[in-house]
Amino acid sequence: MQNEYNIHNKGSDEEVFASLLLLYYEDLYKYALKYIKDAEESKDSVNQFFIYVWEKRTFFQLASHTKSYVITSFKNFLIRSGSSLRQNEKKQQLYSLTLEDKELPYEAYILANQKETELKQHLQKAISNLSPRQKQLVQLKFYEHLSYEEIAEKTSLELRTVYNKLHEAIKQLRQSDIIQHLKKNIFIF
Amino acid sequence: MTNNRFTVEELMLDDSFIGYCLGKDATDIEKWEAIINVHADYQNVFAEAKQLIILLNSGLTQNEIDKERQWIMNEILKRKTFIIGDEHENQKVKKVWYLKASSWAYISAAACILFIVFMVVPKVDNNTAAPQQKEVFSSISSFGEHKKVLLPDSTTVMLNSNSSISWNSDYNSTNRLLSLRGTAFFKVAKNPHKPFIVQSGTLFTTALGTAFYVQQSAADNTVAVSLLEGKISVEASKNTDKSIVYPGQQIIYSKASANLQKQSFDTLFLHQLLTDEISFTQVRLKEVMAQLAKWYNVNIEVQNPALKDKLVTGVYKDISLEDLLKVLSFSMHFTYTKIGNTIIIQ
Fold first, then answer.
1. What is the mean pLDDT of chain A?
2. Scanning A1, B34, B117, B246, which has the fewest C-beta atoms within 10 Å of its C-beta?
3. Residue range A76-97, pLDDT digits in tens
4. Domain Protein FecR C-terminal spans what residues (chain B) (predicted)?
């Protein structure tokens, strides 16, 4: 996958921008969810961020850590748009105005995201039955898509332990009600 | 997986299988589709693993993301129209934009946008038909610039120096009509149901999915249409005979005699133009300038005879004529001035 995009020079065009969108849309969306806790509002803020980037593209200098750079820019963008929307009471509740990096529990993301309520409940329950360590590992692997090496580094566990614990966690998830629920729909795709 | 025994747990812990489930990586998708096809007896195992991964990812589906991307790209294309308008009006629209879709402000923004569009229409579109209720989009390249434009149907256009294209909001509804001033290369997205038509003055070029170059020269009042791929038909005005052009052929239309003439052309130049990379190894300056003139569709005159035989070496990619001249003039000690469409080197 290409990680280096130059959107800072005049030669930039829509095609480069479109691939940038493809690469980072979901990451930014998930990031927005942390603070905005509402799927539609989060999508809106990501969309507006990308339009903002497009308009300011001459000022953007993408260096080697493109992803973290984009996420930091997005965070600043959220803070700015959050404070400009303060007069609106509903918005004030949506944006936690102190954007410090505190994590929401994994279940909260699920709650914001899944459309089907029954499934949502089963999934929430299944996840909350995992041990805190298992929950953390499942989240890092399946929500944030980190590699095993990155997870090992982040949690200071052995590579092998990460793998084994995840294996265990999946096994446990599969013993919950969620599987019965899935089996009903299993031939859908 | 060499042992051919698949378990839900092992599949879910395989990074490439995750890539396949979330539709992120073409290689993974291809690989796993093939594996799943061969192992029909493990159908349920694959299905369960895939569903769990999608559930746990709990993000947006590829479809949802595509929908949002489409929306953003459309907004951006719309925005480009305003750049032609007055800077001041442009600012206003930008500010209103950041308010939320649900609020009243959005409605007034929409009204404001419509208003501005009507202001812009007569400026950009006074020679094509019916400027009534349609929004007009355009894209303009400046002198010595190669500008790439992506149209809503994912056709790409490369505008050469000092050119512009414009199209209406109903582009891609029944057909795809564009009007061109200047010179441009078109790589048309395939769609046999919606003919792609380029109007350059009174000359109409129709294509169904192909790559061609339209070159208008004001000096001798001609239009040249050169074809790289596919098939196009060219007509001198709406009701004359069509002339079919095949790859490697070029048609020259002279406005004075309203006459179409077919001939073959050098496709290599067009291929080079498309990569937007130009290179010279020990080439005489006068030849370099002749190539650049063709490359940017401008006239270049070298007046100082001492310069003509100096040798140039270099590779330039995605560079504007102005930047290139700056580099060359600095290293080879010459000055240049621009008069109309002509650059004079001293």
1. 71
2. A1
3. 888 777 655 544 554 444 444 4
4. 278-345
Q: What is the DSSP letter of A96?
A: -
Kindly tell me the number of DSSP H helices and DSSP E strands found in chain A. 10, 0
Of A46, A91, A123, the CB nearest to B55: A123
| Nearest alpha carbon to residue B138 among B129, B149, B130, B146 | B149
Contacts 24+ apart (CB under 8 A), A78-87: A78/A32, A78/A35, A78/A36, A78/A45, A78/A49, A81/A45, A81/A48, A81/B98, A82/A35, A84/B98, A85/B100
Q: What is the pLDDT of residue A64?
A: 57
B106 against B284, higher pLDDT: B284
Confidence check: pLDDT of B51 > 50: yes
Domains of chain B as residue ranges with CATH: 8-57 (no CATH), 62-124 (no CATH), 136-269 (2.60.120.1440), 276-345 (3.55.50.30)
The torsion of the CA quartet B184, B190, B193, B197, rounded to 10 degrees, works out to 10
Annotate B200-229 with b (16+ C-beta within 10 A) or e (fewer): bbebbbbbbbbbbbbbbeeeeebbbbbbbe
- Candidates A116, A96, A115, A90; CA nearest to A33 is A96
Note whether B13 contacts A167, CB cutoff 8 Å: yes
- Give just the sign of the alpha carbon dihedral A183, A187, B2, B5: positive
How far is B91 from B110, CA to CA, in rounded Å? Answer: 15
Q: Cα B89 vs. chain centroid, distance in angstroms?
A: 27
> Could you identify the residue written with the tokens 């279940």?
A107
Spatial separation of the C-alpha atoms in residues A126 and B264, rounded to whole Å? 70
Question: In chain B, what residues touch A143 (CB-CB under 8 Å)?
Answer: 56-59
What number does CATH give the domain A106-184?
A: 1.10.10.10
* B79 part of contact set with chain A, CB < 8 Å: yes
High-pLDDT (> 90) share of chain B, %: 0
Contacts of B59 in chain A (CB under 8 A): 26, 29-30, 113, 143
Q: pLDDT confidence of B227, banded at 50, 70, 90?
A: confident
Interface test with A, best of B60, B106, B146, B277 (most A CBs within 10 A): B60
| Cα dihedral across residues B2, B4, B7, B13: positive or negative | positive
Q: Delimit the domains of chain A by residue range.
A: 14-94, 106-184
Q: What is the largest CA-CA distance in chain A?
A: 56
**What is the distance in angstroms between the Cα of B150 and the nearest Cα belonging to chain A?**
6
Fold topology of A14-94: Rna Polymerase Sigma Factor; Chain: A (1.10.1740)
Contact B59 A113 (CB under 8 A): yes
Residue A27 token pair:
């990451």
Q: Where are the beta strands (DSSP E) in B266-331?
A: 277-284, 299-302, 311-317
- Residues of A whose CB is below 8 A from B147: 13
What's the ipTM?
A: 0.70
